[in-house]
User: Fold this.
Amino acid sequence: MTTPLLQVRGLRTRFGDTTAVDGVDLTVRRGTIVGVVGESGSGKSVTARSIMRLLRTPGRVAGGEVSLDGQDLLALPDKQMRSMRGGRVAMVFQDPQSALNPVKTIGDQIVEALTTHGAAKSQARKRAAELLDRVGIPDGKNRLGDYPHQFSGGMRQRVVIAIALANDPDLLIADEPTTALDVTIQAQILRLLARMRDELGIAIVVITHDMGVVAELCDEVVVMYAGRVAEHGTVEQVLGRPRHPYTANLLQAMPRLDTAPAARLAAIPGAPPDPANLPAGCAFAPRCTRAGQTCHEQQPALAEQDGRDVACWHPVAGALGSIVDKCVAPERKAVGESILSVDGLKVNVGSRRAPVYAVDGVSLRVAAGETLGLVGESGCGKSTLAKAIVGLTPIIAGTVGVDGKAVDPARGGVRGAVQYVFQDPYASLNPRRTIGQSMAEALHAGATPDEQIRERAAQLLTTVGLSAAHLDRYPHAFSGGQRQRIGIARALATNPRLLLCDEPVSALDVSVQAQVINLLADLRDELGLGYLFIAHDLAVVRHLADRVAVMYLGRIVETGPADQVYANPLHPYTAALLSSSPEPAPGVRRERIVIAGDLPSPLNPPSGCRFRTRCPIGPLRRPDRQICIDVDPALGNGAHTAACHFPGELA
Amino acid sequence: MTATTAPAAVAKARPRNRYIAALRTPRGITGVALVGVLCLLALLAPVLAPGGYDAQGADALRPGSWPALFGTDELGRDVLARSLYGLRTDLGLVGLAVPVSAVIGTLLGLAGFLSKALGTFLQRCLDVILGFPSLILGISVALVLGAGWWALFVAIVVYGLPAFGRLARASLLGQAQREYVHAAQVMGVPRATIMVRHILPHALDPVIVQIAVGMVGGIFLESSLSIVGLGIQPPAPSLGALLNTGMRYMTAQHMYVLGPALLLLLLALGLVLISDALNEAVQR
Assistant:
């Protein structure tokens, strides 16, 4: 094989006294995509920044070597390194919103990238237009004069990639390039990156936390944990037959679309370690079921095994499985009476004169002990719907009922029965109040007598797997997963019968996500709680939900029992969503339905069927289907029904 | 990147007395020392200048010399003594007026949480105040109330309102969208309680910084009003009034104007250093 393009050996990066990256090796060959996967704090982004020499103080590379085509990047003078960046090595960042300058046209920004590296001005604009065409922005020449805000999120990320490609780099480093994007858009960008590899032969390093993205896109994968490489090999090897217990456990802890949901996920206990406070031996040892004496005392070195490199004293031998005992689920309570009913709900998030209906006629029911999963991409109105139900956003039409009686959400009508679990565990607790104070506020609001508050708060914390000793601590002392547990405990303080969970696990690391999902499932089954579970992650919803409702542009487009909807989607949007969700299974490259374009603005929704502007079976592809433009399809009355004129055609 | 730094940054404990910690920085210490010494001088004015501010000496417009560092004024009164008494007036004035302004301004700014329409209306009112140049504002107040201490007090209070009101509103708008405020709302905690418990503590940070800045502004407003003769009325001294009269004798007795100006400068410097140090602590 030819010499690798990028060779990183023993890279060590320190932030003050904290070693964020500790002896990382990375080899990237031309024309391949290498995934660097890990949870927050694993050092994956720091590795990328160290390679690019973009570390911010106090970060500095303390050891190791980085060579690109035999040239030592760490020893290069600043000036040459600058021309290297954006020249031979380019970088794509996570958030296309902040990666582009909002006051300059995208044409100027691409031209800037070109002329900085010596291109002639006269040629630059022509080349910029070519680049836009290359990354799939139609009519590139005429869009050079547009500003970033005139592009959607996915299109902006394409522009960022175009800028990165401007000087024909040999290596592209993409740091979470699709994390800020919806699944249907993510599928488009992943395709684009794979095409760039095939057409231009460039090497790409993709930093991600998502095993699905790795399986979908990468040739090789480096699994990082606590600043070190845990496992390295081809995607088939690592994801198919993981040898490191961390990789294996992580894959098991993820809810999957391609396997039947088990009652509980095989969650990894504990949380990823704080880089400032690593254990002496293997960093994963405290959470590992296979850990022995050696693991706690000595760091394992990367060693070849079974065709790939593993850093473990007791690597997994057999097939995947049998590492963690499947948790036993308690008996589920029968689904009871309907608690929450929503009929024809409309929410205006615009002004009175220029109304914008983020939720436009939504009806749903949730019963005790039942989970209704509400799925949709960002901007479809799912969070607005939840906020309207609890009265945080005023409704302009429709009714909200509790136990069959209509109530006024704005006057706290649902308060006694319904509580809310928020998305961001960092923002949902007041940083200046102790956990006890936050709990007391909730209990007080729930009319718990003052003298019982502390006792009850301690009880609730125990219910969610924390202890009374945590009451006097401030939120900053807790990890994301623990904070989400506290958020759940607080929601339970008023003895609700139904929880509105608004993306409760999307801000959590994969290994912690499973714990919270299991906790929610346990609470549902033990207390007979009903859930309206909002998420964009189809696999998570599939794991928890009994019924599913799919939302698109303010409407529910499909609803039905979870197994039916996932096995046999009726609406083309549901089918596209399902096929766009990347699965952490290598080799299973299903025939993808990649839907074109972006979510239209709710300010001016398309006539007829709202999905027709992107629909793969609609008038876009089948001009004879005038009905989609003229008639707004309605949901049927059956248990599994879709608002589509041609349901089930695309499955 | 954020993923790596966030836990470390979050884990760093917020000291409960970070204001005190801020004042222990070199900048904070210098500021506190300056303001402290000036306060002490002002408090001790009757001891340091037992003759009071009105005692007339032998000759007028004598240049500065030991111990009458600032010399004498046109009536033969000791300018240093008058400056110390003037400092006393100024410190008392802004020390009372600015906190009053801060309390009223903060409440006006936070009122928007109770009623959206009221909040918007109050902000527009503050904008109107902001539209007046400070001098014009002061003159209008003095014309209504009559020149003197009270006019200055009211002018400084009113002059400070927009800054406090806007800062409080900015915090309010930022906090009102926080999930923990939503959480409290969903649980049915009364709005007024949410405001006091969750929003006010966060609004206090910038307000406290602004108090130090506002004091500087208040002193300058006092001086400019005194310069046009609408401030503290003679024979009572204030730093502004001293500058006003001293300016006329600048060539004959330059310490007459430079002395009070120096005190004013040091006081402003001290306050700015304090606000700077506090600001840094708040931003952390």
